Amino acid sequence: MPELPEVETIKRDLQKIILGAKIKKVCVYNPMVIREPSPPVFKKSLEGLVIKNILRRGKLLILELSNGSALTIHLKMTGQLVLRQKLSNSGKAKNSRVVFHLSGGKILDFNDQRLFGELRLVDDWGKIKFIQSLGPEPFDLTYGDFKDMLFKKKTKIKPLLMEQSFIAGIGNLYASEILFRAKVDPARSAQSLSEGEKKAVYKEIKKVLSKAIKHGGSSIDDYVRLSGKKGDYVKFHRVYGRQDQPCFVCNSKIKKITQGGRGTYFCPKCQM
DNA sequence: AATGGGACCTGCGCGC
DNA sequence: TGCGCGCAGGTCCCAT
What we know:
Distance between the termini: 28 Å
CATH architecture of the largest domain: Alpha-Beta Barrel
Helix content: 25-40%
Oligomer: single chain
Number of domains: 2
Largest sheet: 5 strands, mixed
Strand order of the largest sheet: 2-9-5-4-3
Number of helices: 7
Number of strands: 11
Order of helices and strands: HEEHEEEEEEEHHHHHEE
CATH superfamily of the largest domain: MutM-like, N-terminal
CATH topology of the largest domain: N-terminal domain of MutM-like DNA repair proteins
Strand content: 15-25%
């Protein structure tokens, strides 16, 4: 499940491999993932453009193109961007939805089992509603900002960390991991955190995300890097996916609860 | 403002 | 072996 570290990893991989490449041909195998414009216009407009810049905002990838437009890619749950050496006779892999044939013989495959992923071609990516609704990037955040943002927030801290309009880029997995390391109960009301706890959460947001980026993200389920290789951060997970297993710190059983329809993992002793 | 639910999808693992 | 079910979680949307 791609969150900020996974998307950032893909962004950096893309910068090394496809920056400056020309989009020669676009093959659409499932038009459902193209949100705008219509799939035929999407395909026709993209062909011939050069990839000038590659950015990330929250969990969204942004490819700026030579005519000033931008291709945005949201991987949602199961989306993958994979560089293929070659494809089978059908021209696609199992879940290829859109395949970009680039100059230099590079093939970029947008693969997405569950079809939640979204591609858009827009004139001005700053005007995308989703972008405008995003909160600050975690790495741009000062502690003063963060403290102000928590002020009078009654919401539980864990769902709050996942709210993209609050902070951009944190999803279900990293929210649990951050709170474990900060020793904060995920069910606590955000405004009830002590100064020390707020500071701990703030610090762990940056620490966990940057370490995860350093290790190429977390490959559980579908996420892979551009090369098809897995991200390495799973070995640092302390709570995510570990219900009923012993806490690495105190040996208590890790618990799983549901918050806002999502699984939350935590240690009932370390995070009292 | 906060919270809960459903919707969008598919494949997997479970129990029977 | 096979069927049906619940579950995974990013985001939007609606209801309370």
